[in-house]
Design a protein that fits this description.
The chain is of the alpha/beta class. 26% of the residues lie in helices and 27% in strands.
């Protein structure tokens, strides 16, 4: 269909790294596509950003009955977004053994030709589709990898690096090298004055569907796709090794949502204005100095202590908001509350004297009086029973959906799974995961 670019959304992952954010209960994992982020699910942000750059047809590759049904309940067939959305067939899930295999199999199943943008659902992107298309066409590439420049220190042990030629073609891949190895392979980065960044794979690919389908018919590729075939570790190196042109083109920004720490870091970047498209999509801020967004229904909501609206408390200075705060609908914010670099969902109660910084609070959660929460995630309907003389303190922690924390609880680097009732515990080692009542009994 002429110069049309299709969207292919890889939505089959289980979201293990993001637990408990992806859990509705200890044994029920939500699709990664439905991770709540700044008032919408991440897949909604993805569809809207692509739609605004001209993509009107999307193909969602899901995995499992729950994954299919959950995503379809949110996206439907695209009517709400003004686009057309198709879904992979559940009976063919057995072929989706890895992101690369799933892509190749469904390109054939849908009989797709032309150009498509392949995207994951555990990230948000700031990118220019036209720039990707120009680089793709200039290189006559079978695949163009969206890349993000990172310093050797950022890369070490965490990201794969692409080796590229002067014409932008990828010649090799180095998977999560140590810092010493980065300096050996790219000696220019070890110079004292060097500030060079190296291209890392953002997980977004502009592909020539027809050429990928031809590659998929290679006997060796057929064998690989029957076992395990991921994009980054398997498919791309195979394409480069067989001489198919794979290009790399930079995008402006990538925000990973795959772990709690990355989720919160990306949230801070978005609320801080580092994603221009998302900032525009959030609408005009309630205040620009400092910048924050508060839904009008929350500005009108009176708290149960003073009976004054949030707008009144902000005006008189008894509540301090910002910078970089978003408050959704019908939230109740008590007096003497301070919020900064935080996202507050719909229907949330934040009681008197609470202090929240670099934190996400899910819909309908309750944060009790004088709680101190920093660099943490509190899931939907969770209850943090803090008291003035016995406050809850959370640092670098994640509280699952509908979990219940008693007054005096102090957690640092701890994850609490959904629906658990946690007594006043302190001193748990960083990295502890409370997944069941047995885990709780172990520590009290």
């Amino acid at each position: 269909m002429g110069d049309e670019t299709l969207g292919i959304i890889l939505a089959g992952g289980r979201g293990e790294r993001a637990k408990p954010l992806t859990l509705a209960s200890a044994d029920y994992i939500r699709s990664k596509a439905l991770i709540p982020f700044v008032g919408r699910s991440v897949v909604e942000w993805l569809v809207e950003s692509c739609r605004d750059q001209g993509i009107r047809r999307f193909y969602v590759i899901a995995q499992g009955a729950e994954n299919h049904s959950q995503i379809k309940l949110v996206l439907g067939h695209g009517e709400r977004f003004g686009v057309e959305i198709h879904y992979s067939r559940a009976r063919l899930d057995r072929y989706n053994v890895g992101s690369g295999a799933a892509t190749l199999h469904n390109l054939e199943q849908w009989d797709l030709t032309g150009r498509a943008l392949v995207l994951p659902v555990d990230s948000v992107f700031e990118f220019d589709l036209r720039r990707l298309k120009d680089a793709h066409d200039a290189a006559d590439a079978a695949v163009t990898v969206a890349s993000v420049g990172r310093t050797p220190e950022e890369i070490a042990g965490k990201y794969g690096v692409m080796q590229t030629s002067p014409d932008g073609l990828v010649s090799g891949f180095v998977e999560k090298p140590t810092l010493d190895r980065v300096h050996r392979i790219f000696p220019e980065t070890s110079l004292p004055s060097s500030v060079r960044t190296l291209p890392t794979n953002a997980g977004m690919y502009l592909v020539d569907c027809g050429r990928l389908r031809l590659a998929a018919r290679n006997p060796e590729m057929i064998r690989l796709a029957q076992q395990r075939l991921d994009w980054g570790g398997d498919l791309l190196p195979w394409l480069v090794g067989r001489g198919l042109p794979v290009a790399a083109a930079p995008i402006d920004r990538l925000g990973d949502l795959g772990s709690i720490a990355d989720y919160l870091a990306t949230l801070g970047d978005v609320l801080g204005g580092r994603y221009a498209w998302m900032r525009r999509a959030m609408g005009e801020p309630t205040s620009t100095d400092p910048p924050y967004w508060i839904h009008e229904s929350s500005l009108r909501t009176k708290d149960s202590v003073t009976g004054t609206t949030l707008a009144q408390k902000i005006s008189e200075g008894s509540v301090v908001i910002g910078p970089a705060v978003r408050i959704g609908r019908n939230a109740e914010i008590g007096p003497c509350v301070k919020l900064r670099f935080s996202d507050i969902g719909d229907g949330v109660d934040v009681d008197e004297g609470a202090r929240l910084s670099r934190t996400a609070i899910g819909d309908s959660a309750v944060v009790g009086p004088y709680a101190r929460i920093t660099d943490s995630y509190v899931g939907p309907m969770a209850r943090v029973h803090s008291e003035r003389d016995n406050p809850v303190r959370l640092v670098h922690s994640a509280i699952g959906e509908a979990a219940d924390l008693r007054p005096g609880t102090r957690l640092s680097g701890v994850s609490v799974y959904p629906r658990l009732r946690v007594p006043a515990v302190t001193g748990l080692p960083t990295g502890t995961h409370l997944t069941s009542s047995d885990d709780i009994l172990h520590w009290i």
